[in-house]
User: What shape does this take?
Amino acid sequence: MEIKLFGITKDIVGSDIISVPEDVHVGNVRELKSWLYIQYPPLKELSALAIAVEHTYAVDTTLLEKSNEIALIPPVSGG
Amino acid sequence: MEIKLFGITKDIVGSDIISVPEDVHVGNVRELKSWLYIQYPPLKELSALAIAVEHTYAVDTTLLEKSNEIALIPPVSGG
Amino acid sequence: MIKLVTTIDINEAYAELQHAEAGGLSLFIGTVRNHAGGKSGVVQLDFEGYEPMAVKEMEVLAAKAKARWPIKKLVMIHALGAKKVGDPVVIIGTSTAHRKDAFESCEFLIDELKKSVPIWKKEHFDDQTVWVNAHP
Amino acid sequence: MIKLVTTIDINEAYAELQHAEAGGLSLFIGTVRNHAGGKSGVVQLDFEGYEPMAVKEMEVLAAKAKARWPIKKLVMIHALGAKKVGDPVVIIGTSTAHRKDAFESCEFLIDELKKSVPIWKKEHFDDQTVWVNAHP
Assistant: This one.
């Protein structure tokens, strides 16, 4: 499973992508966030952190498939 | 005393100016409006009719001097 | 920038509204519609103004807006003469540090312009001409 | 017209908003300010977007606005990449028969864009760089 990164999350991770190892099971958004916060504690300091699945904001219970396009959405600041 | 005309008042009067005869005394806006309504009854049918003195909206009690720039302001419709 | 013109130039208005401390810029552009007062078939409009008074009234409105909102730059431009459907006839713009002030002041200025600035619109339909707002 | 671009073209947006039945057109243009968060000295900004999702989110907002106001034409254009003070970074426009609808829908769209469209702004000051809004 791959996670696209943008904005400050790219700086925190030091890459524009996170590859979730095969042996880590993250079945929904809540589980993915828990795993991310353990791997990259500075993510917890952000004002907010959303997950997008297939270009749409996901909720904690949204299920994740390996084939989904998944992205971290730190607080937006366009306009 | 001369009165500038705009918009529909020009059509009603058939000119872009009214010359108030020397022997007619109109000392303020109220008196001028009374005289105008007698001379040009269709002016009474307008939604509203304001008088401008020196490029400023005048009130009924505004005094009129022969040297003033005076104009009839029918309902505006700019924009 | 407050003025009466023959042809509205949007780029001129935008250039005038630039200000290093402005983050938001609200522009309102009024154009000629092809229907008016429930009647379709407007083919042309003529705008007539009492020019010195119209400019003076716009300046009064600008002063009121500047007293109420922290406006960096302000534009009020109205076209006079013959206009076709789709032509811009008025452009109002304000630039401010924060966008809410820009929206509010821009809307205030066009609302007030329509109430008090001595400019008159004559609508030419296929079959008649009408001075807008003249009669109840 | 909804898109992400390198350079904002105001004339393109204005042309797109033309509609024979539209009497009023509200445009909002967001530009780069020289100060931010109480700190002066912004020398440059970089805008990064999650492009397919940003376009999709703008389309969702446009659909919401169209459900709420009788919008004839709508424009949402955001710039990405490096911008200098004064550069336009976003342009939102709506045209409607009556101006109140144009103002309200335009303000709604920029307010919502700033809340949900995945675009990020990095401010370069003389002495540091900051991802805006990232931290409390």
Notes: Chain B has a mean pLDDT of 96. The first strand of chain B starts at residue 2 and ends at 4. The helical segments of chain B are 7-13, 29-39. Residues 29-39 of chain B form the longest helix (11 residues).
